[in-house]
Amino acid sequence: MRVCEKVAEIRSVVRELRRSGPVAFVPTMGFFHEGHLTLMREARRRFPSVVVSIFVNPLQFGPAEDFAAYPRDLERDLRLARETGVDAVFAPARTEMYPERPCTFVDVERLTGVLCGRTRPGHFRGVATVVSKLFNIVQPDAAFFGQKDAQQLQVIRRLVEDLNFGLEIVAVPTVREADGLAMSSRNMYLSPGERRAATVLYRSLQVAREAILGGERDLSAVREGLAAQIAAEPLAQLEYAEILALPDLTPPHATDKELLLAVAARFGRARLIDNVTVTIGEKTET
Amino acid sequence: MRVCEKVAEIRSVVRELRRSGPVAFVPTMGFFHEGHLTLMREARRRFPSVVVSIFVNPLQFGPAEDFAAYPRDLERDLRLARETGVDAVFAPARTEMYPERPCTFVDVERLTGVLCGRTRPGHFRGVATVVSKLFNIVQPDAAFFGQKDAQQLQVIRRLVEDLNFGLEIVAVPTVREADGLAMSSRNMYLSPGERRAATVLYRSLQVAREAILGGERDLSAVREGLAAQIAAEPLAQLEYAEILALPDLTPPHATDKELLLAVAARFGRARLIDNVTVTIGEKTET
Questions:
Q1: What is the pLDDT tens value at each position of chain A, 286 positions in all?
Q2: Residues of chain A found within 8 Å of residue B133, distances taken between Cβ atoms
């Protein structure tokens, strides 16, 4: 496995890899858990070559957010990537990605005015900008993203379409702990009590999904139930609980078939997000 | 010469061309004059393959600007491109470039707060967005731009650097009529009287450059003289006359070596721009 710190280096490694066929790309912020490894394994299974980037992107963190505290363990990450059969890792320093104060930013409008886009101003600008940079550096044939970051996934799909990046976006289902908690590098911030409390996110999402699948069409009532169940957990500080239509993240109408149920809440210093999607059939009038 | 209207088509033509070596790209809005042809000839001279795009990009025109009136003559353009030895022309319809109302925009900040960026809000967002799209579609090894659009050139250089587009930007000197008027598709809007009056732009720029080369270091006096000379032309409506440091388009300091002298003015319904650059030596105290 090749490990590259420089843009020029990874470009030339990818050029080589491309000779054996299409190249898959898994952009990450490192500190790998099963979610990351599943992305890499999926990429490995479907493509002859897999490139992974590890970069904690300062541009997507707000001034009051956890950029400095964000967990990092490059050595362990490299070992895990190697064991998973990754061909090359791009792990640039901050100065390699941003040699100067950047002037250029990529904005994905509309899709970013809701959910995390509302509570983390500038976050998706940072994501869209760094992902554009990484796509230009690696020029992959496909890029793999987790469904865990549902809004990010839609933003990147739209970015790829609007800016004509010639690559396929592959979404991979959220990987969960045995009790349902979505895997996240930020779970390490949780105290044992907060760790138990955090399971309320997935539990309440499942209840809401079951209600819709069971025929409930009053989505604001479902949304309120979802919010109330999380708010009832003493260690949870609810940030949002929303039901939106996919893929545009717009308020849902009776004709929408694909819904996203998405939540964000703080448990101590950990800000966690989770989501499920629901496909609904024709609304039957009975 | 291949003429492609579809993104998928030009992608596959470029893939073929790339087998014979690096590909040069000349993005244009069509209605070719000697300036465009010089870009193509330069590209032809330096690269084995040349791709030209012809697309009047609605995104870079303000609501009160001349998008609808902007001159178009695709047949003549294709003939001229063929005669110049261009390998492929990409001439997409508006719906091919913007199949939906776009969500994604590329902004180059700071550099766009001056000159045309101030008087044409949204213009450089439109330019940076369409150029990003075209770069992603064509994936050239080099792209050729005219020095005539000096601010656009700096914006695109910065875009390429910040977003890691792996290509070289080649600047080509402004091509002028015998009397010095910079070639522009918008010169066709000029009445004979306005056409004569418009020569004031280059004449006044030359006077200002000569003053600086002659040792004048009071740049605000030079700038005021430049503005006054244009304002004195009855058919000219001055928009701006500025002296800025290259490459960042910041207010010039005594230590700056590369200056841009840039002007914009209306003559009837034609809004024209022009510029010269000046390289100054060490300031000598005498």
A1: 999 999 999 999 999 999 999 999 999 999 999 999 999 999 999 999 999 999 999 999 999 999 999 999 999 999 999 999 999 999 999 999 999 999 999 999 999 999 999 999 999 999 999 999 999 999 999 999 999 999 999 999 999 999 999 999 999 999 999 999 999 999 999 999 999 999 999 999 999 999 999 999 999 999 999 999 999 999 999 999 999 999 999 999 878 789 999 999 999 999 999 999 999 875 444 4
A2: 162-164
Which residue from A74, A67, A57, A60 is spatially nearest to A4, judged by alpha carbons?
A74
In angstroms, the Cα distances linking A103 to A27, A151, B128 are 22, 25, 12
CA distance B156 to chain A (A): 10
Residues B49 and B116 in one domain: yes
Closest CA to B39 of B49, B57, B25, B21: B25
Euclidean distance between CA atoms B179 and B63, whole angstroms: 33
Note whether A7 contacts B104, CB cutoff 8 Å: no
B189 in the same domain as B159: no
- Kindly state whether residues B126 and B211 are assigned to the same domain: no
Burial class (CB in 10 A: 0-12, 13-18, 19+), B48: middle
Distance of residue A171 Cα from the nearest chain B Cα, in angstroms: 20
What is the per-residue pLDDT across B16-67, written as a single tens digit (0 to 9) for each? 999 999 999 999 999 999 999 999 999 999 999 999 999 999 999 999 999 9
Given A172, A202, A227, the domain boundary residue is: A172
Nearest to B238 by CA among B252, B228, B250, B249: B228
**Interchain CB distance below 8 Å, A107 and B111:** no
**Bridge partners of B168?**
B142
Structure tokens at A270: 């950990």
Those residues with Cβ within 8 angstroms of residue B258's Cβ, 6 or more apart along the chain or in another chain: B245, B246, B247, B277, B278, B279
d(CA A57, CA A136): 16
Q: B57 to each of B31, B99, B109, how far by Cα in Å?
A: 13, 13, 20
**B217: domain CATH number?**
3.30.1300.10
Helix (H), strand (E) at residue A126: helix A123-138
